Amino acid sequence: MEKHKDDIALAVSILAFALSLFATVLGELRADDDKQRTVRSQLTEVLRGLMSVQMEHAKLMHESKDDAMYQTTGSAALGQQNGFLLDQAFYLADQVPHLVTTYEYNTMAVAGANAGNVLAAEKYYRKAVEVAYSPLYRSQAIRAYAMFLFAQHRFMEAREQFALALRQPLGRDNLSRQNDAVTYQSWAWNEQHLARSEQRARELYRKASDEISGIDVEFLRSAMQQRLNWLQENRSWAPAFPILNSDAATPAISSAPR
Q1: Residue extents of the structural domains in the chain
Q2: For each successive 10 residues of the chain (258 residues), what is the average pLDDT?
Q3: What kind of fold does domain 2-250 have according to CATH?
Q4: What whole-number distance in Å separates Cα of residue 71 and Cα of residue 178?
Q5: H-type helices in the chain, by residue range?
Q6: Is residue 235 helix, strand or coil?
Q7: What pTM, to 2 d.p., does this model score?
Q8: What does the alpha-carbon distance between residue 131 and residue 92 come to, in Å, rounded to a whole number?
Q9: Where are the beta strands (DSSP E) in 166-255?
């Protein structure tokens, strides 16, 4: 009888220990989840700040085009702001990489390129490709990376990436045709203006036009064809660094070397 009581006491002790251990582990997991949610929220705010800086810079360039001194001073100040926000974004993103999306990595890549930090920019352009969850997002992320490579005069690598973007299994619906048309015209512009390859550019512009002609929404088709024609005719227009889902880019923000 006494042994039976001892066995019961031992079982109760083991159960109590197991419950205590479970509660401790569960508490730590919840604390870790709370920490990750906090970091994720902070990253969202920092990225919002980076986008605001990009918009402020575009506004500055437009409004101060006749005042070079003010433009230079304003660009320098925005460059500093871009720089410290970028450092925060890099730090926070590395804390919760599984919670960062393709568009967010691309935002950091663009900001890094604008700040002159091309090593960080390349890292995050690659990250954007890596985490893309659909063929469309992957195609857009690869295209952005290809445009970045062209800006670095790494033409062979850039061409390989553009070709890879076009090989993504997208289908032949309007959205897919729009995406491929933008990819062809982005590639064409870079060949024409950076690689100085007029023959390649003409062929790529033609392919972009072919994709546009297959879009059965008249307003979209007309707008894209006008845009394509404008790109071919306006040789003075120059994008800085590539963003997703676009053939253009945000203006470069100057800052101290990083």
Answers
A1: 2-250
A2: 58 61 56 75 87 85 81 84 87 89 91 88 95 93 95 96 94 91 95 92 94 92 90 63 46 33
A3: 1.25.40
A4: 36
A5: 2-63, 68-95, 102-114, 118-131, 135-151, 155-166, 174-193, 198-213, 218-233
A6: coil
A7: 0.76
A8: 17
A9: 241-242, 249-250
